[in-house]
């Protein structure tokens, strides 16, 4: 036998068809607890409103009521807590849902369209029209009178950077991505702090996600000195868009950029397992002002302070014979510009393309542009990391792009002695693009990047020797080798390709 409650109306309840609202069943435990007392039964129901009149029927399943409905007054259950109001929960759920939608839309569904049409050029790298294209369409103009010096691996890079910081007399501007606590980060913090205490204006912009010691000893030392420290996008809805730039400008006259992180992992000669092989570059001459402007771009965004005057932008005299351009890209000013610059460089190649890249995941248009170059008879050589890498999934995804290029004649090499972190492109023995940008979607569409473009045969010839040295420490991967790669790598590559837009 079962008991049900029926909300009464003005005319009473004359049959089961007159039930209003949802019927609430009182379980057996409630019946036992109240000993079938009708008033207690009503009070035991969770959805009975106090002060309302309800009718109780005793109903046997499959039969009509065996006695008329009896009218009882609902009484309050003294043991039941009052229900809290529901509107705070509704508003909270709406706020959380709106924030989640905004976060996903801002970070993973960009509104900007990416070019997908094939790029065909009737000019070559080094032609006047190529120089005008690079200067007018993709960034600041290429300037003559510069001197670029390549620095290889931590043994050369860290002493040069620290010496430059210690020599500063007026200003230091420093933008960085990776900063890990250790001997190297301590040395940089001490050098920056010492210059700040000496009266040099030191401005340090550090990416939030790239630093594992925001409140560690190195950062605390910097804060305690007079260094102006800013953390890039620490609390920001655009968390997916990082600054990957590595810029250091001393007194507005000498600049450094490249791919090196401020961490102990970069120490050594690039030949040690678990350490990084990397390149950095010193720039002197008129193009240093372009590097300074690249730093100001994110400094204004983060601190909203304008750094100006002769201390930051002094008159720059010619320092060499290199024609250079400091090229920057960011999501805020058209993130596709870095991608287009590299695509046009490849499309204008006529003889030789050499690519050294830590994370090589070309998109569809980049693949097509490289295949078109191979069909034109351009020789394409690519050096990528070997098994010693910090991101095995990224390596597996990148290798899924190889077969069409291998079949068309491209040659791939995997660096063996250490982790490979270089990022440079050499075209036709006269054009180079070096810096922080990888050939993947994260660098070309999401991150803030800075590259140094150089139009000079001597510089490219010297860098070609570096490429050949890296190649001599690499293992060539043929199409048969690619086909014989482990099944685990094949699976990781296929699954990881679903997230290639974030790599």
Descriptive notes:
This protein is an alpha+beta fold and 503 residues long. Helix content is 34%, strand content 22%. It has helices at residues 28-34, 38-44, 87-108, 128-136, 153-166, 183-197, 217-224, 288-303, 337-347, 364-375, 392-399, 402-408, 441-446, 457-472, 479-483, 487-496; strands at residues 2-7, 53-59, 70-73, 143-152, 171-176, 201-207, 228-232, 247-250, 254-258, 276-277, 279-284, 322-329, 352-357, 379-385, 411-415, 419-420, 423-427, 431-435, 449-455, 474-477. It has a 15-stranded mixed beta sheet, sandwiched between helices. A three-stranded antiparallel beta sheet has the order 1-2-3, covered by helices on one side. The chain starts with a strand and ends in a 7-residue tail after the last helix. Mean pLDDT is 83; it is low at 1-74.
